[in-house]
Amino acid sequence: MSDALKPLRDQIDAIDQQLLVLLEQRLELVHQVGEVKTKHGLPIYAPDREAMMLSKRREEASARGLSPDMIEDVLRRVMRESYANEKDKGFKTVNPSIGPIVVVGGKGQLGSLFVQMFKLSGYDVRVLSTQDWPDAESICSGAGLVLVSVPIHLTESVIAKLPKLANDCILADITSIKAKPIEAMLAAHSGPVVGLHPMFGPDVASFAKQAIVFAQGRKPESYQWLIEQMGIWGARVTPIDAGQHDQAMGLIQALRHFASYAYGAHLLRENADLDLLLELSSPIYRLELAMVGRLFAQSPELYADIIMASDDNIDLVKRYYQRFGELIQILESRDKEAFIKTFDEIKTWFGEYSLQFMQESKALLQQANDSRQVDTKPVTR
User: Residues in domain Prephenate/arogenate dehydrogenase (predicted)?
Assistant: First the structure.
């Protein structure tokens, strides 16, 4: 069998080497595309071009008897690398006449990411860190934009102690809550104000396809260039009301993070065997466990700040606790009909999103299964 497999495996290895050469050539072309985009101020992410290209490749794959889904998976992974490589070529400077950009907290993880992006866009960037406060006035002197990137519980106090800024200077923040920081910025500064929330962490390889929401503060015409600049970075920049934003973040962030925190605490108290759970988990349960576990690989201060950011968040968690108790009563009474009735009500409320989420999760589960480390040794407990 070994003699029969070797020539076939040698041919596969040769084809894989050809694939490497082709991928190298593709990335070189991506570098050239990045240079053209930089020169002409084009966004790093072009959704229409991407959709058209994927559609054509899927059709061509079908004609060749190949799986369109497989080809799309490969191309999406290649494109993700391409976006990261395009970023290294820099971006057009949308507002070359703007004064220096000061990032308060620019040595932190998210702050340093914005420092990098502004520098790649050709701006004069300064950093105001904790140890620099004695020189805050000189650092902020002549600034065209001051961007506050500090922990949530410090945001309002940091805004309040900023030196007086020029009337045309834009004051912005990138905190995950918006109403209170905007209120603090409006009180501290008479010029343009805008609240930003990058809906991603500092470990992203590129801003392509990432969402950034912004809530209006004052003089929106003054910061349109900033919105355009982030769009050129590849971000999807969307306006939102500050109150609506914070209400949504209660469900998206505070409640989900607390649920993960509680589940992690329960696993601890139950002294669960994580090795055994992973071994016995199908991809979906492994992915769910991974989403819980990744929380505890990060800063507890960050998540405490997010969850405890407002009384509304705490009230939301309490209502969740109450509903959890109501559903437990169904279990205790072994009321299967009530369980199914509630299930169907929720299913109706989700509507077509249920099928959409089923399709989206399918791709995630395939990736989770592909990356799983297979241990051929039997589990002995």
Answer: 99-361
The identity of residue 25, as a single letter, is Q
Token couple for 235: 């971000």
pLDDT tens, 141-186?
999 999 999 999 999 999 999 999 999 999 999 999 999 999 999 9
Edge to edge, the sheet with strand 236-239 lists: 125-128, 101-104, 145-148, 170-173, 193-198, 211-218, 236-239
Tell me the per-residue pLDDT of 217-263, one tens digit each, with 9 for 90 and over.
999 999 999 999 999 999 999 999 999 999 999 999 999 999 999 99
Q: Write out pLDDT tens, residues 300-326.
A: 998 999 999 889 999 999 999 999 999
How far apart are the C-alpha atoms of 117 and 73, rounded to whole Å?
28
- Using left for φ > 0, alpha for ψ between -120 and 50, and beta otherwise, residue 142 falls in left
Closest CA to 80 of 192, 182, 208, 167: 208
How distant, in Å, are the alpha carbons of 47, 149, 183, 248, 289 from that of 240?
Answer: 22, 20, 15, 11, 32
Q: CA–CA separation, 318 vs 307, rounded Å?
A: 12
Relative to beta strand 125-128, strand 193-198 is unpaired
Whether 339 contacts 330, CB under 8 Å: yes
E strand spans, the chain: 101-104, 125-128, 145-148, 170-173, 193-198, 211-218, 236-239
Contact 93, 39 (CB under 8 A): no
- Whole-model pTM? 0.81
Which candidate, 259, 267, 258, 264, places its Cα nearest to that of 293?
264
